[in-house]
Amino acid sequence: MAQSWVRAGMQAVECGARVGWMQSVAKTSPKGQQLLVVRCSGQDGKKKGGLRLPGGPQMPAYGSSGGYSKSAPGLGQFKPPSMFGRPAPNETTQEEKARVEAILEQIRGGIGTWQERAAGVSELQRLGFGLEEIYTQAYVPAPTQTSMVVAAQVYQSMVEAGCPPDLLSWFDESKVEILYSLRTLSAKQRRSAAEYVRDNDLDVVGALELAKAIKDHERRPEGRQGFSPVPGDCLAFSLHRAAGETINPEERSTFIERGLGVAVTDSAKLRFSEL
């Protein structure tokens, strides 16, 4: 059986028939790195080869060729367990336990607004709960949790941007995925996009197409002359590009027809006459 004891700052270890000494000393490298020096010797007292610990640069032990070495890639990289960052069970008060259970019950039962449940998911995540753990205890799939949290952030940015209550109220329980589709837009773009989505009763696919068109218009200063940054013209610009790129006459006609239908400004409509 392995034995270990401490004597004069060194640790004697026995493993099978091999007995030796191991001593660890904290050092600072010339570059200011905090390193751990591990010195080893056999039962006969002779110094053995260097011992490297996983996780980063190590000071060479006695017997090595000198210089700094790095442990094998990945040895120092690990995924924290789901309990990482969460208070130990004996440090959690009864009040905190009751709060967690109340949040889980709210999410499980679909109690309150989706914004309130999204806030509950965010709070659980801050307490150290992972997506899978929340799913196990509240039965809400991980993708849905992500959509709720991100959609709530989009919703809050619209509130801060001064969106009217009637626009905000339109994004009820069934519109979470639509709000999630607008996550790539700026706060100003989200407001105009949200109004366009509501006024035209777009679904998730339509909202995604709109968000992509708005970002595409923003990123392509060349070729967008005549197309204003309003949502309708952004969609028209996207359809104008699609019509110019396709070699299928029927598709081109469809893109042009759709583009003329969504274009807002006369200058945008005029651009389709070029095709």
List the SSEs and their pairings.
Blueprint: E1 4-7, E2 10-15, E3 18-28, E4 34-42, E5 57-58, E6 69-70, H1 94-109, H2 114-126, H3 131-138, H4 142-160, H5 165-170, H6 176-181, H7 187-199, H8 204-219, H9 231-245, H10 249-262, H11 266-271
Antiparallel strand pairs: 1-2, 2-3, 3-4, 5-6
Helix pairs in contact: 1-2, 2-4, 4-7, 8-9, 9-10
Describe this structure in words.
With 275 residues, this protein is an alpha+beta fold. Among the domains are: 4-70, no CATH class; 81-140, no CATH class. The chain contains eleven helices and six strands. The chain has helices spanning 94-109, 114-126, 131-138, 142-160, 165-170, 176-181, 187-199, 204-219, 231-245, 249-262, 266-271, and strands spanning 4-7, 10-15, 18-28, 34-42, 57-58, 69-70. The strands form two sheets. Strands 1-2-3-4 form a four-stranded antiparallel sheet, with no helix packed on it. The chain has a two-stranded antiparallel ribbon with strand order 5-6. A hairpin with a 5-residue loop joins strand 3 (18-28) and strand 4. Helix 4 packs across helix 7 (187-199). It is extended and about 70 Å long. 22% of the residues are buried. Residues 1-19 and 50-77 have low confidence and may be disordered. Residues 54-74 have a biased composition (Low complexity). Residues 100-159 form the Rubisco accumulation factor 1 helix turn helix domain. Residues 171-272 form the Rubisco accumulation factor 1 alpha-helical domain.
